[in-house]
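Workshop exercise sheet. Pairs work together: one partner reads the sequence aloud, the other fills in the structure field after running the prediction. Swap roles for the next sheet.
Pair: D.N. / O.F.
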Amino acid sequence: MANPSASMSARNEVRTVAPKLIELSEKVLYGDVWERPGLSKRDRSLITVATLLALGRSDQLPGHLERALGNGVTRDEIGEMITHLAFYAGWPAAMTAGRVARKVFDGA
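Structure field:
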């Protein structure tokens, strides 16, 4: 699962600027969407990490990579996802994601 202290730190930082955004994140995104039975949390993690990689959202990648590992996605699968997405999302995005993943793996 994602590093709770890092996730809470980011949320608390944004909470002072956009409290409703954080309320919606906690109640709707994590309290409802992530809990829906239509997809496993593992699948949701794969989708989320792939989307963040494709959109170049490297600030959010570490927490979601940690969450993905906690939800059963393996390091090898993350590596394969990054390699696969290089051809669809772009080489620079994949290289950035690979560097972020390395830091997450080193800290895990």
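Discussion prompt: The two ends are 11 Å apart (CA to CA). What would you look at next?
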